[in-house]
Amino acid sequence: MPLIASPDASPETVGLLQSWKLPADVTLAVETGTIDNDALLIERCNKADAILLNWAKVSRAAIEACPNLKVISFLGIGVDGFVDFAAARERGIRVANVPGYGDRTVAEHAIALMFAVARRVAQFDTIVRGGGWAEHPSGLELKGRRIGLVGFGPIARETARMALGLGLEVVAWTRSAGRYRRNFSTVKFIDLAELFATSDVVSLHLSLNDATRGLIDAVLLGKLKPNAIVINTARGGLMDYDCLEKLLAENKIYGAGLDVFPTEPFPDRPMKQLPNVVLTPHIGFNSTAALERLVRGGLDNILNFFAGKPQNLIV
């Protein structure tokens, strides 16, 4: 009978796990609260056959202290920062993630930020809450404008579908444009410099790696139109935030909607005081529907593994 340990479940995760009927031969041990040391993780997982992992770090020491462990299923995508892959491989422990669970939700957040910036929602909200009443400055109508998608993975493709439905022209840059031209004939694929120079909205949809870190530099940002909007729901490390902050402060672009930052939590800096910026705390992935897909997918990774049908394996 496999024992699944969920050592650091959120309250929402607990509710979902308790609402689903599990196979009779599976035991699920769920505990909540942040885990910030090996000892606590080991205490909660040392008898487990599988770990359903939220945010805890599974170190070599933790892996060595869990003799029954066979599979770790991470509730997210970027599992490399949470599990010691080398130690897992040495023990023959498999590691899985949950790809695709938040594609639609993150895309919707990108669109939400686009509208919030274009119509100065946060700025006018602050005015009304402060007892004021104002009709200016005017916002932007987005129909007919060009949105440029940097990257064309699953989230960008969802964003493209929504943007087309809203009446925007969609262009995109990706190193593998040939893969998508047939199925996305309404999207024009262009080079990165042209995308930044001609788009009214630029939305980032790249993973962060050695090839993309700092890719959106001062040269590219300097090509933006005066009425351009920058949206980032991908990773903060993709872009030169110092340069972006200067452009925003000097009103050289219209605004920005940012859900991710080079350092999180985002430290105090002038950008936080600018009225043409909408900031959210890396919650683009966080909707009730996405959370249900995430937890269900993470649990299914484990159940299918023990049923001899492993899926979503990274290690």
From TrEMBL:
Residues 10-312 form the D-isomer specific 2-hydroxyacid dehydrogenase catalytic domain. InterPro entries: CtBP, D-iso_2-hydroxyacid_DH_PdxB, D-isomer_2_OHA_DH_cat_dom, D-isomer_DH_CS, D-isomer_DH_NAD-bd, NAD(P)-bd_dom_sf. Keywords: NAD, Oxidoreductase. The keyword NAD applies. Residues 111-284 form the D-isomer specific 2-hydroxyacid dehydrogenase NAD-binding domain. SUPFAM superfamilies: Formate/glycerate dehydrogenase catalytic domain-like, NAD(P)-binding Rossmann-fold domains. Belongs to the D-isomer specific 2-hydroxyacid dehydrogenase family. This is C-terminal binding protein. It comes from Dongia sedimenti.
